[in-house]
Write a structure and sequence with these properties.
about 240 residues, mainly alpha, two-stranded antiparallel ribbon, 8 helices, elongated
């Protein structure tokens, strides 16, 4: 047999712990692909630790009555503010995906930054889906938001601002496909910020997550202007009519 096997497995808690500690790998609750050495497999795992992978269906029917489940298992109505915020974070990431497609066509230098933002938004979704009131210690242990993420946005904003012409007027969302789509992302981000602010009024919410979303809207505004400049496009200026 080959020295290393790529095995797609459905893991029990024990298997997650063994393989996770061995390779320091984040493991999915549903199944994952991870390199396992033949020797490690023989020493630590038995056939009882592995169950066949079940095909996950897209639909579950559990939300047919208007409720949905948070990460903690708590069920709430779908118009709960947490689900509103989760939906907006998802919408924001999807909007960034559209802007990213335009940015890739123009070979913009900030493409990787946008991809990282999407990944961080996925993590923020986990925070929102884990209310402290119903979270167990195991849930809390999986949550950590690095404040350096916000600092990185600030550095990127400052770097782009050095190249941009100073703002002397209100500008309208414009400046080509990349810029306009990034302005749209900014507007969605502002809505996410408002919903998180509302959530903070009634429930616990990590302040560093809120700060990141606040700074992200500033970043999206700046990177929209930056894309406009790099593409040689024209910003439309507000004029009273």
């Amino acid at each position: 047999m080959a020295a290393r096997l790529f095995t797609l497995i459905q893991c029990e808690t024990k298997l997650c712990s063994l393989v996770g500690n061995k390779y320091n790998t984040k493991l999915s609750a549903y199944g994952f692909q991870v390199p396992i050495s033949q020797r490690f497999f023989q020493q630590h795992l038995s056939h009882t630790d592995i169950v066949p992978v079940r095909t996950m269906k897209i639909y579950t029917k559990t939300g047919d009555k208007g409720t949905s489940s948070l990460y903690t298992g708590e069920r709430r109505v779908k118009f709960d503010i947490r689900f509103e915020a989760l939906g907006t974070i998802d919408e924001l990431s999807s909007s960034i995906g559209v802007a990213l497609a335009f940015a890739e066509e123009k070979n913009h230098t900030f493409v990787n930054e946008l991809v990282k933002v999407q990944c961080i938004l996925q993590d923020i979704g986990s925070f929102i889906a884990t209310p402290s009131a119903s979270a167990r210690e195991s849930h809390q242990n999986n949550l950590h938001f690095d404040h350096d993420n916000t600092t990185e946005l600030e550095r990127a904003i400052d770097k782009m601002t050095e190249e941009l012409p100073p703002l002397k007027n209100f500008i309208l969302p414009s400046g080509g496909k990349t810029s306009s789509s990034l302005h749209f992302c900014r507007a969605v981000c502002r809505r996410a910020e408002r919903q998180l602010a509302q959530l903070r009024q009634s429930e616990d919410m990590d302040s560093s997550v809120y700060q990141y979303i606040n700074r992200l809207s500033d970043y999206l505004f700046t990177v929209a202007r930056y894309a406009c400049m790099k593409e040689g496009q024209h910003e439309h200026i507000y004029r009273k009519v």
